[in-house]
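If your schedule permits, I should be very grateful for your opinion on a structural question. I would ask you to consider whether the tokens describe a fold that such a sequence might reasonably adopt. Thank you for your consideration; the sequence and its tokens are set out here.
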Amino acid sequence: MNNLLSRLVGDKKDWKRMEARAAQLPADYRTVYAEMKNYMWRFTAGDGMDIVAILRDVLDLFETEAAAGRSVIEVTGPDLAAFCDARLPEQHDAYRNKLRANLNEVAQKLA
């Protein structure tokens, strides 16, 4: 029980640190990151740590590319859904198509 509690508290602290990092991104990156989170959470399995790991990798990439002066659309391409889908396990294909159109509307507004 102690191990589970330690893991949950640690996971929550990690998540808060990630959110603080995301808040420091430029506005276009913050917008895309928030929309990606909304999209990806719909595909989570179990405790959600699978999606947290993916989002951590994306956050690392976004921080690096923002520091290099690239726009978020240069990093993700205009198809945000494809960018996300490339990182999600293939088992979620059935639900993906419906959500793709909604997510790509964000990129169209930023382009």
User: Anything to note?
Assistant: The first helix runs from residue 2 to 23. The two ends are 49 Å apart (CA to CA). The CA atoms of residues 4 and 90 lie 29 Å apart.
